[in-house]
Amino acid sequence: AVKTIMDLAETPNGDILVATWHRGLEVYDYKTNTFTRYLKEFGYKNEYSFPITKLERIPNKTQYFIATKDAGLFTYDYQNNEIVPLKMYDYKGDILSIKNLWRIYYKNNVLWLGFRENGVYKYSDLENQIPFFSLKNVTQYNDFVKKSESEIFLATNNGLILYNVENHNQRLLIEEPVRSFQLKNEVLWVCT
User: Fold this and answer.
1) Where does 39-157 show beta strands of DSSP type E?
2) Residue 67: other Cβ atoms inside 10 A
3) Residue 45, SS3 per DSSP
4) What does each C-alpha distance from 132 to 65, 76, 112, 139, 159 come to in angstroms?
5) pLDDT digits (tens, 9 = 90+) for 8-65
6) How far apart are CA 133 and CA 124, in angstroms?
7) Which residue among 115, 139, 167, 168 sits deepest, i.e. has the most Cβ atoms within 10 Å of its Cβ?
């Protein structure tokens, strides 16, 4: 049985992707009313599964990014039912270790990676660079969302922070732990 659901997404063909903490990726096929379990160990079907923390659709493709706590970043192709582990490289050409990946956001060929304890990376497909920032005195990053090209909201155990990635200014908006939030129609909904 699924104990903890971390994220949900609907594919264009109507299937539901269920990111779970204990059972990997579960895909619900509405036509057959069945679940198929994926991402037990790099997509092979056995008993071990990686905690999945977030799903993010890749625009104009048949794929989703899958963020995991311990196993890194994957793509899932919903048309071919295929899961592929991704290797990402830093600016020196070394393979980037992706552990404790908690949130992902992808737009305009830029992938933002939010780590539970190590801050936020910005990975550009075009430039192959990963600018990194981690704020002093922040012990845990819970969520983030892009406000504009230069600003992102960070939900942390230290509060809600508005961070400018260009000039590195930060403003504490809420002074208590923030677990998650959502930005809809310029309204920020906060879960503390």
Assistant:
1) 52-57, 63-68, 73-77, 82-85, 101-107, 110-115, 119-124, 132-133, 141-146, 151-156
2) 26
3) coil
4) 20, 26, 10, 16, 20
5) 999 998 999 998 888 888 889 989 999 888 755 444 444 446 788 889 898 888 999 9
6) 15
7) 115
Stated pTM of the model:
0.69
Long-range contact list for 171-178, CB < 8 A, 24+ apart?
177/142, 178/142, 178/143
pLDDT tens for each residue of 82-116: 888 887 766 666 676 677 888 888 877 778 888 87
Q: Can you tell me the distance from the alpha carbon of 14 to that of 128, in angstroms, rounded to the nearest whole number?
A: 34
* Residue indicated by tokens 């270790």: 97
CA pair distance 86, 89, nearest whole angstrom: 10
Joined tokens for residue 83: 């899961």
Give the integer Cα–Cα distance in Å for 183 and 189.
Answer: 6
